[in-house]
Design goal:
about 300 residues; mainly alpha; MetI-like fold
Length: about 300
C-alpha cells in the first residue's frame, strides 16, 4: 500500500533551514533592540561622555538621570506629557464609544438607511479632506487652540469602523434573535451580548486609537499654540529642530537641546506604549487572528 507524501509545511525542517531561521530572527531582534537600547543608554550618559563617543553611547560609564531631571523640572515636558496622556485617554474612550455605536448600527440589517450612511463613511475614507478645508472647519467651529481639536476631527477612523462592523456581523444571528425573544432592546443586546463577545476586537481597535492619539503631532502643529502642545510635538521640536522650548510660566528655556535631553524625551515618548502593549498582547493576537480562522 503506497503512502502519499506529506505536504512540505508538515515535514520537520532540516538543520540548515532551522539555523537560517534562528539567524534571521536574531538579526531582526538586533535591528529592533539595539537602536532603542542605544537611545536609552545615551539618555543616561553625561553630555561630556556623549561628545567623547561621537554623539552615541552604547554603555554609559557613569549613568545619570540628569537629562530626565532637566526635562521634568522645566515644566515644558511635564505639561506636554500630561496633555498627551489626557488626550490619549479621553480620545480613545470617545473614539471607541463612537465607533462601537456606529459600527453596531451599520451591522444591523433592520436599521433604515444604513447602506447610504456606510457609503458616505467609505467615501470619506477614499477621498479624505485636505489640510486647508480641515483647518477652516476647525476654525469656524471655534476649536482652534483647544484640546477638542486634537480629538473631534479624528474621532472615528473608517478602517477601525469597518473592522468592528465586520466583527459584529460575524456574531451568530441566533444570539440576536434569542435576545430579542427575551425582550431585550438594541442597547441591552449591545452591552450584554455583543460587547462581551468582542473583547479581542475592542482591544485591537482601542490599541490602534491609543497609538494614533499618542503619536499624533501634526494636528497640534496646526491647531495649537506652543504652550498647549502634546509630547510628540515637543519631541519633534527637541529632536528634529534641535532646539529647546521656552517655558511660558517662567519665560525661561534652552537655546538648544543636547543629545542626552533629546534621547530622554524620546524615551518618555516611547515608553508608555511599550508598557501598555504586553497587557493587550493576548487580545491583540486573538483579534488579529479572528478574521483569519472564520469560515
Amino acid at each position: 500500500m503506497s503512502t502519499q507524501a506529506r505536504p512540505g509545511w508538515m515535514e520537520k525542517p532540516r538543520p540548515v533551514t532551522q539555523a537560517g531561521k534562528v539567524v534571521a530572527l536574531v538579526a531582526v531582534v538586533a535591528l529592533v533592540c539595539v537602536p532603542f537600547l542605544t537611545i536609552v543608554a545615551t539618555s543616561l550618559a553625561s553630555p561630556r561622555e556623549v561628545v567623547a563617543n561621537g554623539g552615541w553611547v552604547l554603555w554609559p560609564q557613569h549613568p545619570t538621570l540628569d537629562a530626565y531631571r532637566d526635562i521634568l523640572d522645566g515644566g515644558i515636558v511635564t505639561h506636554a506629557l500630561g496633555v498627551s496622556v489626557g488626550v490619549t485617554l479621553i480620545g480613545t474612550l470617545l473614539s471607541l464609544a463612537a465607533t462601537v455605536f456606529l459600527a453596531y448600527a451599520l451591522s444591523r440589517p433592520q436599521v433604515y438607511g444604513r447602506k447610504p450612511i456606510l457609503l458616505l463613511v467609505l467615501f470619506t475614507f477614499l477621498f479624505p479632506p485636505g489640510m486647508i478645508p480641515s483647518f477652516l472647519v476647525v476654525k469656524e467651529l471655534g476649536l482652534l487652540d483647544s484640546y477638542a481639536s486634537l480629538v473631534l476631527p479624528v474621532l472615528v477612523n473608517v478602517f477601525n469602523l469597518v473592522v468592528l462592523r465586520g466583527f459584529f456581523q460575524g456574531i451568530p444571528e441566533e444570539l440576536y434573535e434569542a435576545a430579542r425573544l427575551d425582550g431585550a432592546g438594541d442597547l441591552r443586546v449591545l452591552f450584554s451580548i455583543v460587547l462581551p463577545l468582542s473583547k479581542a476586537a475592542l482591544a485591537v481597535v482601542g490599541l490602534f486609537y491609543a497609538v494614533a492619539y499618542w503619536n499624533s503631532w501634526f494636528y497640534a502643529s496646526l491647531y495649537m499654540e506652543s504652550d498647549h502642545w502634546p509630547l510628540q510635538q515637543v519631541l519633534r521640536t527637541y529632536v528634529v529642530a534641535g532646539e529647546g522650548l521656552t517655558d511660558t510660566t517662567t519665560g525661561e528655556g534652552t537655546v538648544n537641546a543636547p543629545q542626552t535631553v533629546q534621547m530622554a524625551v524620546l524615551v518618555l515618548a516611547t515608553a508608555p506604549i511599550l508598557l501598555v502593549y504586553p497587557f493587550l498582547q493576548k487580545y491583540f493576537t486573538k483579534g488579529v487572528l479572528t478574521g483569519a480562522i472564520k469560515s
